[in-house]
Design a protein that fits this description.
Blueprint: E1 2-18, E2 22-36, H1 47-61, E3 66-69, E4 75-80, E5 83-89, E6 95-101, E7 105-108, H2 115-126, E8 134-143, E9 150-155, E10 169-179, E11 182-183, H3 185-194, E12 198-202, E13 206-212, E14 215-224, E15 227-234, E16 238-241, H4 247-261, E17 267-272, E18 278-282
Parallel strand pairs: 1-3, 3-7, 9-12, 12-16
Antiparallel strand pairs: 1-2, 2-8, 4-5, 5-6, 6-15, 9-10, 10-11, 10-17, 13-14, 14-15, 17-18
Length: 283
Amino acid sequence: MITLFVNRLTVLDASLLDPELGLLGESWLVDAELEGSLDHQGMVLDFGDVKRRLKQIIDQQFDHRLLVPGQARNCRIETSGPRCRVELQLPDGGWLEHSSPRDAVTIIDAPAVNGDSLAHAIGDAITPQLPDNVHRLRLRLAPESIEGAWYRYSHGLKHHSGNCQRIAHGHRSRIHLFLDGERDATLEAAWARRWRDIYLGTRADLLETFERNGVPCYRFGYTAGQGRFELALPRSRCDLIDTDTTVENLARHIAATLAAEHPGSRIRVRAFEGVDKGAIAEA
């Protein structure tokens, strides 16, 4: 037997429902190991095939989706035809409701969604598609190692033609902020606290403000190319943006906000969207 490995095969960007914390955006780096015997080419599997087969399944079944723990006691899942409705009751009295096409949700057969349970679910989806000479697949999912400030956010882009239109997908992102040409770690940490585990909603998509169990809530909704999407969650877990929440607009929003808070200073923002990509804005 010999083992083939591929580090950083892909980045999986998604949102998950945490039984304790609610809606969380996350970005996982995916590493893969395939153990097997050599084929007629002297390979376990060609690297091109590894990337194509594994990444295709991850992209189609897990990426840019809401990942729901199917065994969580406080989570209720209802499917009807092409629709899926998920409701989560939080220990602190908070509540969340997500309604969308079924393809925007993946149910993970576990009490919680984490790197291990997600790796197991992805492995179950991939293994039947591997050739007979591959005897074992091992996956490792881990967040990016970040020194300094970072935040997790969820959002949806109703005008996007692809899967970014799904109302609850997300990212774990670092943030670099410069004040008068100097990087400012204190400013970065403050912004990371501001957007830690946040839902970034477009103001035009806000359907109503209401209370549930005494907790103020927002309900967002829109119709996009894939269908109707709605999301309700505590107002305290949201920040409203005047534009679509693309990373370009988020960088501009951060820059404008900081410029107003630091009049006369030059602001430069490097806002990341997940791993190794993002947008720069100045004010």
